[in-house]
């Protein structure tokens, strides 16, 4: 006999299905008038601090076809490296930046976010995490949401010291690097096969 | 001096978001579940790279009451013309959002979506021959209260056929999306209805191997909370990942 740990079990995940847009981006699929604006549609407000960028990319399946029915969510720190979250206790984040974005991919599997470049964030055991954006992808055929991160191609030195990138086999690190081109950062996500994106168990 | 040190430790304790307990992946469906054909080309083939949650996963977005409209949790009326309502069996769905430590998760957003009473979604890619209900959109959301409770009013969705096997049908279900206090808790799942014989036959339900885990997705008929002469009720509690204790680790973030 032994005492009970008295813990509940996490509710199991189920796929978001092909009609995920009804729930997450109702205005995109024509359910208008219920909510004036889809959640996560606007990350920045006037007066936001930092460098404005657009993150754009495609989600592709194992056959290289666009995953045109997925929803992509991102979560990131502000330009100073602070999260706009009640769980952020280091200081107040930029009030003109939500840090949370949500986008339904289009017919070509393309998503895009107008945001700011995040600052570095403290990592475990005194390490510093290079500027990065957390991604979460759901769709028909995805049984449990996929977590990944996008880092920045113009942060080579910081990326080298990043405690998460250091856990990834070097050959696969490029799948986590967004390619900076002016104000746009290109970041494709490959669910399976050649150059498969690294996904995380966090 | 000693008192000051104590104060500092206490404040450090309060000022640190704790990491999440590791996810029990055996309870969830695997990415690759060939009985559900859509997963075959959308399942990563490589192992996930594991690391303990950092600040980026321990924090998460919070939404205020300002995003919630008055009819957001009333699917019977939130898309209906004035004075009209959606067709179907009227039900109330309610429950609590808890974490694995059994604590309520207050002030978090719960979004839900579903087919109408005939099993038809209001969506451009939907081709089922059952008719649309002009008064039913199928979308709603709630913010949990201080005890983690949420509730909404809707109609019981119909079962519907879908292209997987020749004759596969989804049991009646409601899709749920839940935010926690940290991005690592993000969860999308589906709620089924007690007593539905279609649950056991569903290839999507069967992506989950553990019968106890499937049972956790089946809402109980809750006649005690029914509204007499109006709606029956179903209770559906949702459990998000819990944060682990940080004994001997009460240091500020990054130290
Ligand atoms: Fe569905």
UniProtKB/TrEMBL annotation, chain A:
Entry keyword set: Dioxygenase, Oxidoreductase
Name the Gene Ontology molecular function terms of this record. ferric iron binding; protocatechuate 3,4-dioxygenase activity
Q: Has the keyword Calcium been applied to this entry?
A: no
Which stretches make up the Intradiol ring-cleavage dioxygenases domain?
A: 55-83
Q: Which domain of life is it from?
A: Bacteria
> What EC numbers are recorded for this enzyme?
1.13.11.3
Residue intervals passing through the bilayer: none
What family does the database annotate?
Answer: Belongs to the intradiol ring-cleavage dioxygenase family.
Name under which the protein is recorded = Protocatechuate 3,4-dioxygenase alpha subunit
């Amino acid at each position: 006999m032994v005492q009970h740990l008295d813990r509940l079990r996490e509710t199991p995940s189920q796929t978001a299905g092909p009609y995920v847009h009804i729930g997450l981006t109702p205005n995109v699929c024509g359910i208008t008038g219920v909510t004036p604006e889809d959640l996560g549609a606007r990350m920045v407000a006037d007066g936001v601090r930092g460098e404005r960028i657009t993150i754009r990319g495609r989600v592709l399946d194992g056959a290289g076809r666009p995953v045109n029915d997925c929803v992509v969510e991102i979560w990131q720190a502000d330009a100073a490296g602070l999260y706009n979250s009640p769980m952020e206790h280091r200081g107040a984040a930029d009030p003109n930046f939500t840090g949370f974005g949500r986008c339904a991919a289009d017919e070509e599997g393309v998503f895009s976010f107008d945001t700011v470049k995040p600052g570095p964030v403290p990592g475990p055991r005194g390490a510093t995490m290079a500027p990065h954006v957390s991604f979460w992808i759901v769709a028909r055929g995805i049984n449990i949401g996929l977590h990944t991160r996008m880092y920045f191609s113009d942060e080579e030195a910081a990326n080298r010291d990043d405690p998460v990138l250091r856990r990834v086999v070097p050959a696969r690190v490029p799948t986590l690097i967004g390619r900076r081109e002016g104000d746009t950062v290109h970041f494709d996500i490959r669910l399976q096969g050649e150059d498969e994106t690294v996904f995380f168990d966090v | 001096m000693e008192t000051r040190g104590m104060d500092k430790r206490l404040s450090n304790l309060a000022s640190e978001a704790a990491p999440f307990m590791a996810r029990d992946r055996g309870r969830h469906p695997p990415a690759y579940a060939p009985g559900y054909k859509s997963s075959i080309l959308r399942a990563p083939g490589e192992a996930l790279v594991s690391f303990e949650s950092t600040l980026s996963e321990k924090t998460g977005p919070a939404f205020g009451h300002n995003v919630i409209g008055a009819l957001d949790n009333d699917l019977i009326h939130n898309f209906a013309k004035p004075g009209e309502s959606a067709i179907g069996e009227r039900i109330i769905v309610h429950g609590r959002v808890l974490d694995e430590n059994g604590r309520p998760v207050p002030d978090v957003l719960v979004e839900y979506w579903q087919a109408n009473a005939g099993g038809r979604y209001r969506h451009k890619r939907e081709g089922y021959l059952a008719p649309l209900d002009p008064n039913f959109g199928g979308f709603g959301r709630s913010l949990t209260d201080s005890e983690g409770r949420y509730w909404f009013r809707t109609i019981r969705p119909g079962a519907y056929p879908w292209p997987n096997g020749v004759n596969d049908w989804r049991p009646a279900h409601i899709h749920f999306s839940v935010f926690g206090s940290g991005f690592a808790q993000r969860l999308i799942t589906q709620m089924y209805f007690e007593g539905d014989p279609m649950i056991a036959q569903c290839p999507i339900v069967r992506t989950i191997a553990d019968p106890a885990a499937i049972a956790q997705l089946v809402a109980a008929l809750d006649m005690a909370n029914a509204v007499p002469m109006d709606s029956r009720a179903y209770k559906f509690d949702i459990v998000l990942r819990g944060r682990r204790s940080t004994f001997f680790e009460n240091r500020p973030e990054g130290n």
